[in-house]
Structure to design on (564 residues):
């Protein structure tokens, strides 16, 4: 920053502070301007634009233009006096869901079905060369569901509870069930694989970003791989935001830009200099320096919704032996990692159930001694178990990790040092994200696989990670009895009963130790005070921030007064 720029910033801040109310939220929203965001996934470019690819990150990049039947009820955010922070990757409590494209819905019996009434007058904007502007209809929902259900890339059994989906009127969709599924709303309503995509886009080629088009608040206007996603305001968007008793048409900003920035120092510099309005993913180690260099930043701190672990392939020797898996857990000083490596900014135990999953989560103190033992450092017992299992000193195995994750790049040598103390060596294999993800999805991942995995929601956290054949099961864990328990959870309508069942299943899988369980770090989000109608919310569905950004406005005058 130049000396003149620094002086201007100082004077601007002084004027703003003298004004007294300069940092308060204006009485009415302001339209226009752009919002520049370093998102939770700031190091990752878009992986796909086509919902049929069943890519986990799709909603993050397409949720600005592809809408869903349901979304988070952001009126219940903490900034509005509500109970919810809305930072979970894919967890909407039952009292925090609103209809997005769905105006109303009702359960019916004989056969078991849910009838959904769509909002009328919701329009797709014109997309030259792809489609004319037209109204959303029930046929769009049926088409979108069938296209997802028939994809060869779909998650096994994901829609097996659905008998059929049909349009019984222009704005009426009926989902008929084979059996009840406790995740029905998440699966086809607001989850990872719930987008409503018009047939015209699929016909034109949904993998090409230039063809995409939806009913959402923004339209994708530019995409540069590894650099940015740019979204422009949809002038015919249907939704409104009520502020101070008055309704305002959404979105407020004219342009939304995701910046893809691999280097941490560059991310922080972009935030400090106002090139980013929001940076959503900041490691604890950078926070104090940022607070000193940019004291007017606003902050939130949240426990990562991605558990981390080293998955051990239980279908390969010696990891088919539970003694070996338990030994490697005992060899890692997890408390030291939480306290020293993360500076106390981590929870020793928060996966596979997240602390926020009230009723599903049990603290470590409530767990049986055999589980508590896995979080206690005991290298002597670790070596004893390895000897009993016939694992010689000097045994080596490969551990893959993503070079896109700065935290893991720093953490993995520490894990190697701990294991070496009990006579186990690991061969480290850093990988670019595409190859790293492909190794797991194709089940060709190494015997050791260091990753972050979203908690998602209480039931999915167990299902996707430990049920046979699931995509996100890097340990290749397989137990027919455990699979049967999961199926029973989904058939149980009573949530209180499901909570008991999930707590029991969590205890069981922790004890079996298919992973080296690692601490869960806290993450920080920072934003400048000119970013209004925002308090650190991150997701309004499954990794979908679009509805949040649509409700943010930028106080242009404040930004100028602050020298930016």
């Amino acid at each position: 920053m130049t000396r003149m720029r620094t002086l201007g910033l100082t004077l601007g801040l002084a004027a703003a502070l003298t004004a007294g109310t300069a940092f308060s939220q204006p009485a009415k929203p302001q339209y226009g301007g752009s919002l520049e965001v370093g998102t939770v996934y700031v190091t990752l470019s878009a992986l796909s634009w086509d919902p049929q690819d069943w890519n986990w990150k799709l909603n993050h990049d397409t949720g600005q233009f592809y809408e869903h039947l349901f979304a988070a009820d952001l009126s219940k955010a903490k900034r509005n006096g509500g109970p919810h922070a809305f930072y979970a990757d894919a967890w909407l409590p039952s009292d925090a869901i609103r209809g997005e494209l769905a105006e109303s819905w009702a359960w019916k019996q004989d056969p078991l079905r849910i009838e959904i009434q769509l909002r009328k007058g919701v329009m797709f904007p014109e997309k030259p060369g792809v489609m004319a502007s037209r109204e959303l209809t029930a046929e769009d929902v049926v088409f979108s569901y069938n296209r997802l259900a028939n994809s060869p890339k779909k998650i096994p059994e994901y829609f097996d509870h659905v008998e059929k989906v049909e349009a019984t009127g222009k704005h009426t969709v009926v989902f008929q069930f084979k059996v009840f599924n406790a995740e029905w709303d998440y699966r086809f309503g607001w989850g990872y694989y719930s987008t409503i995509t018009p047939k015209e886009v699929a016909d034109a080629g949904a993998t090409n970003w230039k063809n995409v088009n939806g009913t959402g608040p923004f339209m994708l206007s530019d995409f540069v791989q590894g650099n940015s996603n740019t979204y422009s305001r949809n002038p015919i968007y249907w939704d409104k935001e009520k502020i101070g008793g008055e309704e305002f048409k959404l979105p407020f900003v004219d342009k939304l830009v995701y910046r893809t920035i691999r280097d941490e120092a560059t991310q922080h510099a972009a935030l400090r200099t106002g090139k980013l309005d929001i940076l959503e993913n900041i490691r604890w180690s950078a926070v104090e320096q940022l607070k000193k260099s940019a004291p007017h930043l606003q902050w939130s701190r949240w426990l990562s919704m991605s558990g981390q672990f080293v998955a051990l392939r239980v279908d390969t020797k010696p990891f088919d032996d539970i003694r070996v898996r338990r030994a490697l857990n005992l060899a890692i000083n997890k408390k030291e990692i939480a306290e020293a490596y993360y500076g106390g900014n981590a929870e020793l135990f928060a996966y596979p159930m997240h602390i926020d999953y009230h009723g599903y989560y049990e603290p470590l103190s409530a767990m049986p001694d055999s589980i508590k033992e896995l979080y206690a450092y005991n290298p002597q017992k670790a070596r004893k178990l390895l000897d009993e299992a016939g694992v010689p000193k000097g045994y080596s195995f490969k551990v893959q990790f993503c070079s896109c994750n700065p935290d893991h790049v720093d953490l993995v040598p520490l894990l190697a040092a701990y294991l070496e103390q009990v006579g186990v060596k690991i061969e480290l294999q850093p990988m670019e994200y595409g190859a790293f993800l492909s190794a797991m999805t194709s089940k060709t991942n190494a015997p050791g696989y260091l990753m972050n995995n979203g908690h998602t929601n209480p039931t999915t956290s167990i299902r996707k990670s430990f049920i046979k054949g699931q995509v996100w099961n890097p340990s290749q864990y397989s137990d027919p009895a455990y699979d049967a328990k999961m199926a029973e959870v989904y058939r149980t309508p009573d949530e209180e009963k499901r909570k008991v069942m999930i707590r029991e299943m969590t205890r069981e899988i922790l004890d079996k130790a298919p992973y080296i369980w690692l601490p869960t770090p806290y993450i920080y989000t920072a934003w400048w005070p000119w970013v209004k109608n925002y308090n650190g919310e991150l997701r309004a569905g499954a990794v979908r921030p679009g509805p949040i950004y649509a409700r943010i406005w930028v106080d242009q005058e404040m930004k100028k007064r602050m020298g930016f």
User: Anything to note?
Assistant: The longest strand covers residues 162-169. Confidence is low (pLDDT under 50) at residues 1-26. The CA atoms of residues 237 and 386 lie 61 Å apart.
